[in-house]
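All the exercises in this workshop are built on plain-text protein records. Sequence and backbone structure share a record, each on its own labelled line. The question running through the whole workshop is how a given chain folds. The record below serves as our worked example for the rest of this section.
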Amino acid sequence: MRIVLNFLLFQRNIIFTALPISLLIAALTSEFSNFGFFYFLTSVLIHLSVYSIKPPKELFFYLNNGISRVQLFLSTILISVLMILISQLFE
């Protein structure tokens, strides 16, 4: 359970940044049916730019708890795919 909470804590920063940007892109392009795809692109780009290019000290918290960078990236992909599925339900 602790690992799941750590993944959600990690995703908090990505979700709160990617969600408004994705909504803005969907609004500007008038393609709300592609919101999930926009969220996928935005969240992966945010993850790569923030946590891969210059890792902050926050990343070491997750590494010290036994969560690898690959697992963190896969959690970003998983949540993005879930957002795509959820956005398809509301189409």
User: Anything to note?
Assistant: The mean pLDDT is 90. The radius of gyration is 14 Å.
